[in-house]
Design brief:
CATH topology of the largest domain: Rossmann fold
Number of domains: 2
Bound molecules: S-adenosylmethionine
Distance between the termini: 54 Å
Largest sheet: 7 strands, mixed
Radius of gyration: 23 Å
CATH class of the largest domain: Alpha Beta
Strand order of the largest sheet: 2-3-1-4-7-6-5
CATH superfamily of the largest domain: Vaccinia Virus protein VP39
Shape: elongated
Number of strands: 14
Structural class: alpha/beta
Length: about 375
């Protein structure tokens, strides 16, 4: 099977986590860069990455890569690539992309040049002037990073954070890929008791259940490349079979709570759609009131920017800081740079992450929990 190079964009701050996952999936030449990971593999890798990646936003099959600082170089580089090997005569092939720290900085102009170059290459190959673009979608994505062009086909379609279980969200849902990264940073593997006391639409608890049971996140959805002529049906069948065979059955202790009954109902419905309703216990509870819990808490309380105001959010951080059981390991995502002051404790570790465009930090509290655990002596 031919080997391709893939580019998988991911949220800033989780490139390393995404790269480790792709290595675990068995892909070669995995490299993490700014907001993306690249790797190599056959068409089977394309199917497995789409189906199994918890952290990547999409998987792009790279068609060509070259340096360019002028529109002529961009046109020539794109035109020289083997587009007809991938894109059939009647395909729709819209072009999207971005440019960062590069001389070619006008996105609309780059889009026009890339489209024109692909059309010219296909005209030469197919011997036709006009493309109706009425067939299957082969979305072209380019990136120009420090004058290096990478251009390919978007094999995912809708972003991979869309797992197919959360059509309707509450007012500030967390991206599924970010929720997974938080679980990874909290070293949650499904063994400890788990709680999200501010669950909203249930994203973190649902992703915890999917992760604990090794349930591939893409099993409930389709991908653009499933309709592509050059990708054999077999790679999807094999990837799905392997993913289904890899699901663990076990007993898990996963809880999701929220003060708002409507959120709890929504979270339950989302868990049902994700196929993990049996694995998560949902309840209505106020996280500002003291509660006993000896396990891992991963959560994102209201920020103050998007829900309610900052003073209210800070009052809640303070109340939550007092209410939380000191035995718990707590991982809180917040965009408030003064979070630790209001929560009442300095984090053992912090990690910068982005929730969409909002710069956040994952505040990690595990040292006190460790101190409060009995030390087992070797006998
Ligand atoms: C930022 S949202 C959580 C979003 C969630 N991670 C998701 O992906 O949908 C914060 C949630 O905290 C809940 N909340 C606010 N005050 C609370 C309290 N005192 N106790 C428990 N939940 C609370 C809100 O109802 C809201 O659903």
């Amino acid at each position: 099977m031919e080997t391709y190079r893939y580019v998988a964009p991911c949220l800033f701050g989780i490139e390393g986590v995404a790269a480790d996952e792709l290595r675990r999936l068995g892909f070669s030449d995995v490299r993490a860069a700014d907001g993306r990971v690249t790797f190599s593999g056959g068409l089977d890798a394309l199917a497995r990455a789409n189906l199994c990646s918890r952290y990547c936003e999409r998987v792009i099959l790279e068609v060509t890569r070259f340096p360019a600082t002028t529109f002529t170089q961009l046109f020539d580089g794109v035109k020289a690539a083997p587009w007809a090997q991938f894109i059939p005569k009647d395909a729709a092939f819209p072009v999207d992309g971005y440019s960062v720290r590069s001389q070619l900085s006008s996105i609309p102009d780059c889009q026009k040049i890339v489209k024109k170059a692909i059309v010219t290459a296909l005209q030469t190959k197919y011997g036709i002037e006009w493309f109706s673009e009425t067939g299957t979608m082969y979305r072209v994505r380019f990136s120009i990073l420090k004058d290096e062009v990478s251009i390919g086909l978007d094999t995912s379609g809708e972003g991979l954070h869309k797992r197919g279980y959360r059509e309707i969200g509450n007012i500030a849902p967390l991206r599924e890929t970010l929720a997974c990264a938080m679980l990874d940073l909290a070293h949650y593997r499904g063994r400890d008791a788990f709680l999200d006391p501010f669950c909203g639409s249930g994203t973190i608890a649902i992703e915890a259940a999917l992760k604990a049971s090794n349930h591939a996140p893409g099993l409930n959805r389709r991908f653009a490349a499933q309709s592509w002529a050059f990708v054999p049906e077999k790679v999807w069948v094999d990837a799905r079979t392997e993913a289904l065979d890899s699901i663990y059955t076990g007993t898990y202790d996963i809880e999701a709570r929220d003060i708002d009954p409507a959120c709890v109902e929504l979270a339950k419905e989302n868990a049902r759609k994700a196929g993990v309703a049996e694995m998560v216990r949902f309840s209505i509870a106020d996280a500002a009131k003291p509660f006993a819990f000896d396990g891992t808490i991963v959560t994102n309380p209201p920020y103050g920017e998007r829900m309610g105001d900052l003073t209210q959010a800070r009052r809640l951080y303070a109340a939550f800081g007092k209410a939380v059981d000191p035995r718990a390991r707590v991982y809180v995502l917040s965009s408030d740079e003064d979070f630790e002051r209001y929560y009442g404790r300095r984090a053992a570790k912090k990690r910068k992450l982005y929730n969409g465009m909002i710069k956040c930090c994952l505040y990690m509290y595990f040292d006190e929990a460790d101190k409060s655990r009995p030390v087992r002596r070797k006998v």
